[in-house]
Batch of 2 targets.
Target 1
Amino acid sequence: MNKSTATTPRLLLALAAACAMALCLLGCSSKPPIEQVVDSVQSSIPDLKAQYADTYSDITITASGSDTIVYTYTYKDAVDAAATATTLDGQKDTLQSTCDEQVFPAMKQAGVTAPKAQYVFLNPDGSQVWTNTFSAS
């Protein structure tokens, strides 16, 4: 497992925790709930980018539809897609648990009725390494 692959699970958990904390601070807004959720976590991105600058060239958080928060990570250096996908597949249970315990309750609190979280990992050339969408279990 290379450094980039080893760092990935820690980043996912850190981002999920940051998301959950930021969502707890949401106030009233005229924006749709999913957009409020995305706006609330934007402030965590610069710190995450700095913390994981050796691994990722970019980290973005966007919305898809009315119920999905999308975390997109672009590796700084190309990774072996198959090996990295295998590692990330091995983290699905941990990610599902983190979403169920932290992310989804906070999203529901913000008014997202059927929350989902999608994780997308890209190589520097934009090719997809791994993606998975989690729903409440």
Target 2
Amino acid sequence: MPAAPAALPPAVVFNRWCASLAALLAWFQGLKARIPGFHKKLFAALMGLIMACFSWALLTAYPEKMLTYEAREIVLMSFPVSILGGLFDYLSLFVTLLIARRALATPDNRIFLSCLSIDLLIAVAATAWVLFVFTVSGWLINLALSLPETLGQRQELYKGRFWMALMNPLHPESLRNIYFGVVMGASAMLPTLVHLYHALRVALGALFATAPGKV
């Protein structure tokens, strides 16, 4: 009677993970070499992505705001939000690439995992950056429109929303704020999500694969 398929050895799994990550880095480097003005176009694309995320989050979470006096302020806010958000995404992408190269350069699987786990901090930093971006952007637009609001007042507004979402996440307003934040942070989490996708793909492949020499 044939034996049940055995899981692949950890060393083989890590080798496949490394190969998958190396292929992704090679693809990115090839893209960078083929496209003239790559960095400018990448930054512009990230800004466009954030503006799209902002529009989608706004229209699905707070559609009523576009029918009030806040509409002009919100539309103007989308520009500094896109610029500052694009800057974070641009820098975090290259930090992620640096981490991936460092991980691939080590022969130790524990160091490999440690390097890639640092990338999870980018997702946490993205949350703080979203709060910072909206605080500064809202204050700058209010300053430009000569509206009576200080930076401290804007900071307290978003701090209050953050703590409300943390302490009472099931409140309807908290759910809307959490959804808005997740959509806005999606672009910053793309490198982390790509890493997780490659890790899960290799792990699932190892579970259903047959180890060499097994029948």
